[in-house]
Amino acid sequence: MNLTFKNINQNNWKECIALKVHEYQESFVASNWYSLLEAKYQGDQNPLAIYNDEMMIGFLMYGVEPETQRLELCRFMIDKKFQQKGYGRASLNKLLSLIKEKYGDIDFYTSAEPDNINTIKLYEDVGFIKTGEVMWGEIVLKIKL
């Protein structure tokens, strides 16, 4: 596994929006095209493609949430063809290292739909803990880096 993050640009945006989750997961995450528009027009967001070697396998976006002013992972998806192969966990760990290197010792947040049990378990497995908060109908989790 050779994971890298790359910026979304004119050469890879179409590949990014073509990534898909399983049908039962569609209600758990915004589409990548919507996330890219949000990043373009809503400020402090960092959309990144997740690559294994030269193959785009997923997408994530992190930044400062305007309502809470917290740094958070607001989008995370692995294409359905690459799920259940360890890429999600490895990508999250790589992101947490990047956030720690870039921002230092901070609290880093994310959230998930209550029914998205697999993702909540994945977040907890890499060290996130539930805060007890519910925002936008989602369970809020954080990790101390």
UniProtKB/TrEMBL annotation:
Protein name: GNAT family N-acetyltransferase
Domain N-acetyltransferase: 3-145
Membrane-spanning ranges: none
Classification via InterPro entries: Acyl_CoA_acyltransferase, GNAT_dom
Matches recorded under Gene3D superfamilies: 3.40.630.30
A Pfam family: Acetyltransf_1
